[in-house]
Amino acid sequence: MPLMKTSKVPFPISAGAVLLLSLSSSAVWSQDEKVDFEKQLWPILERSCVKCHKAPHEENGRTVKPKAGLRMDGAWAIKMGSENGAVLTPGNAEDSELWWRTDLPEDDDDFMPPTGKADPLSAEEKALFKKWIDQGADFGEWVGNLEGKPKEVSNAGDKMPVSEIQELYQSLGNGLDPLKEEAWKDITSAGGRVMPLAADSPLLSVDFRLVREEADDAKVASISSVGDHIAQLDLSKTAVTDAGLAPVAELPRLVKLNLSETAVSDAALDPVSGLENLRYLNLYGTQVTDAGLKKLAGLKSLENLYLWQSKVTDKGVKQLQKALPDTRISWK
Q: Can you tell me the distance from the alpha carbon of 198 to that of 41, in angstroms, rounded to the nearest whole number?
């Protein structure tokens, strides 16, 4: 997450579901009995997870997509996972991103649900969730929302297709040996955080969100220690400068780069311009101008570019859009 942690949102549930929630919160269930997903767990997930993780829908005139590409409103969708890959490992909750994100400290950026978005799972509910996964993550007869389900996928998701972004990550990870935590000690010593993209992926997600403004060029330079493995890099709100982004040019597998709310300008895009696998680039709140946009014209793989509150103009954006007709450019 690189999946990868804000007003309470009420969910209409039946009186029976309310009773079930009450029972699960009181840990009345036996440690030996099999968890019934539909009766015991679904009401909890619907309350705390589904608002941000459901089928694309219209909201205030715009299409809202599920966060990180993860839908939790259907059995097939949960098994499909997020844009990064599988989030559920049946039989092993500790290895399932879907569970361990709920068990992080609430002030952790990767904690789910994000603080204020919905009620977090109680200790009893997390225990129930963990038990269900450790028992094999059996959905029983529950199938959930079938909207948007690929035709070749069964309602229960027995055989799952791989999304385009998942295929990309799998392809980038082929032949790459997973690293041990010791390999990125320079990054953690600099205040950065490193996480495997998925349980079975050698690719890494790196961010400096825990130190933000304290992350200067010297600290950011630590990413070079695992450069071949980095697929996602979040430098938002850090003190990185144009010169400090030089190591980015040596990240051949970088797919997502967030430079939002930094002081970087056009020169920072020189090392970015050669990233052939880059799909996402966030330049919100930066000093990038039309001159910098010209350096991005060769990024034919770029899918999403964010330019809000930067120094670009209508003319510059239109010129870049001609060069990158398939890129979604958000700037107003």
A: 24
